Amino acid sequence: MTLPLSLGAEVADALSAGRAVVALESTIISHGLPRPDNLAAAREFEAIVRDAGATPATIAVLDGVPHVGLSEAEVERIAMDEMAKASVRDLAVLAATGGSGATTVAATAHLGAAAGIRVFATGGLGGVHRGAVETYDESADIPTLGVTRMAVVCAGVKSVLDIGATLERLESLSVPVIGYGTDEFPAFWLHSSGIALDWRLDTPEEVAAVLRAQDADAARGLIVANPISTELQWDPAEHDRVLAESFAAAEAAGVRGKAVTPFLLGDIVERSGGRSLEVNLDLVRGNIRVASEIAVAYAGG
Ligand code: PSU
Ligand code: MN
Questions:
Q1: What is the pLDDT of residues 181-233, one digit of tens each?
Q2: Could you tell me where the DSSP H helices lie in the chain?
Q3: Among residues 25, 46, 138, 293, which one is catalytic?
Q4: Which ligand is nearest to the CA of 265?
Q5: Which residues line ligand 1 (CB under 6 A)?
Q6: Does pTM surpass 0.90?
Q7: Which of 46, 109, 116, 279 could form a disulfide with 150 if both were Cys (CB 3.0 to 4.6 A apart)?
Q8: Active site residue 25
Q9: Rg (CA), the chain
């Protein structure tokens, strides 16, 4: 059982013809990138999917209805309107109240899988927060991917989270993590976190073969960890310096609990003079290209 979905016409056509479709999330547009550049980014993200020969399905809840595949006007709405951040638990409440929400990785994967989409591109996955032993703060992205048939192409998790703990949780929940062209888990703005992965694959066809194998098994996610290149990454020394400063600033300002991450993210963009944002956009573009290639390989098989 799933909520009734509104499928965009282009997405519906592509899915019924068995052509490649790539899901895209809306929280990154509405909460993860600053206005008004976020609108240009949302349009560019869809264009990258099209250029690679696949159909983009940006996902959001509009007036209570989960939409899989948005019109241009609907993309503009998620970029420009104030909208709640919606995870899986919020979907029924939004449906019942007629509310709108930008979907997180968890909600996007959940709705995309319900529509029959197999591949999803984003920037960073939500994960286990530093200090989670006391706060229990772990993104619903992690448990949702334990039970949702969706491959997520991402550049790991932001280094403001606890990367090692996030990987441990993915292991507990039986979500495979594949290094795409790498032996190590990426660290979002940086090519590598230094943490070794069990599996590495180098081509879209190899990943598509894993998706087909998973199709014959219980519903479960897949993390395709696609690092930003060392040429495009944020300078590691600068990254370490800015993060240390931002953590110290949060501590000094007495920021606590769920306010910590939004504080850090804003502060990091500011302290880096916009450099962190540039890298963020570059890594999303790279993830969308890879996801599109995987979707094309999967559709062709
Ligand atoms: N990581 C990023 N940028 C983002 C997010 C994560 O680098 O915009 C968003 C994604 O939508 C992700 C969500 O699913 O934050 C996780 O939030 P939470 O920890 O509240 O579940
Ligand atoms: Mn949280």
A1: 999 999 999 999 999 999 999 999 999 999 999 999 999 999 999 999 999 99
A2: 9-16, 27, 37-51, 72-80, 91-97, 105-115, 132-135, 141-146, 163-172, 204-215, 236-252, 260-271, 275-300
A3: 25
A4: 1
A5: 25, 27-28, 31-32, 87, 104-106, 123-124, 126, 139-141, 158
A6: yes
A7: 109
A8: yes
A9: 18
